[in-house]
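Notes from the 1:1 (GR / supervisor)

We went over the backlog. Supervisor wanted to see one worked example end to end before approving the batch request, so GR pasted a single chain during the call. The sequence is below; no edits were made to it. Supervisor asked that the structure be written out right there so they could see what the output format looks like.
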Amino acid sequence: MIIDGHSHLSDSDYGNIQVYLTQLEETGIDQAVLVPGGMVDVRKMTDYITGRAEPESTVPNNAYITKACQENDRFHGFACIDPHSSDSAAHFESYLKAGFRGLKFSPLTHQFTFTSRAVADLIACCSQYGVPVYSHVLYSPGACTAKFVSLAKQYPKVNFILGHMGFGPADQEGLEAAVSLDNFFLETSTGSFLHIQESVRRAGPSKIIFGSEFPLSHPKAELEKILLLKLSDDEREKILGKNIAELIQLG
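Structure output shown during the call:
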C-alpha cells in the first residue's frame, strides 16, 4: 500500500479534491494524509520564502479537509493550527475528537516560534492523544530546524515529522536528529534525491516518510525518487506507507 504522507488541499482550481484524486489515480497511490492548503499561492512560493509576498490568508481551511475525509475514506487529516489563535489547544482537540490524526504547523504563514507557550500546549495535546506533529522549518531563529529538533528532545513520547527533510536541499541538522532520536522522522516531498538516498543509508528506511507536497509537486514525480532508490521490498514498503500508517495508527 502506498500512502502519500503530505499533501495540501484547497478550494482552488489547481489544488482541489478532484485534481488531487486524478493525480492519485495517475500515480497508483492508495491513501493520503491531507493538510489545509490555500493560505499561500504555491505557484509563487519563492516570493513568500524571501518575504516579497504576504500570505493571502492566515486562517487554515480545516473544514475543507474535514469534507475531503468524510467523502473519501482514503484520506486522513492533519489539522493546521495557528498557535497565535485564541484557545488553540482546545481548538485542536476538537479536531482530534472529530477524527483528525495529527497536528500541522505552518511557521511560514503564522510567523511563530517553536519555543512559545502556545506551541507547548499543542504538543502536550498531541502527547495526550498519541498523534504526531508535522512542520516545515524556515531560515529564521524561532522556526529553524534546530528549534524543531529541540521540541522533539523535550517531548520524547511525541513523534515529530520534519517536512521536506528540513530547510534547503541537504539539511544536516534534520538528518542527525533522525539518526539519533527515536521520535524524529523525515518527510521526503521536494527533497533532493541525493539527500533522500543519504538519509535512508544513515537513518534507515524506518525514519523516512514519502510525501508529495501536492499541488506544488505531482505525486508521481515525488514517488519516482523513492522508486529509484536501491531498496529491498520491505524497505520500500516502510517508506511508501508503513511508517506513516504506524504513526497515525491506521488499522
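Supervisor's comment: The CA atoms of residues 195 and 201 lie 10 Å apart.
Batch request approved.
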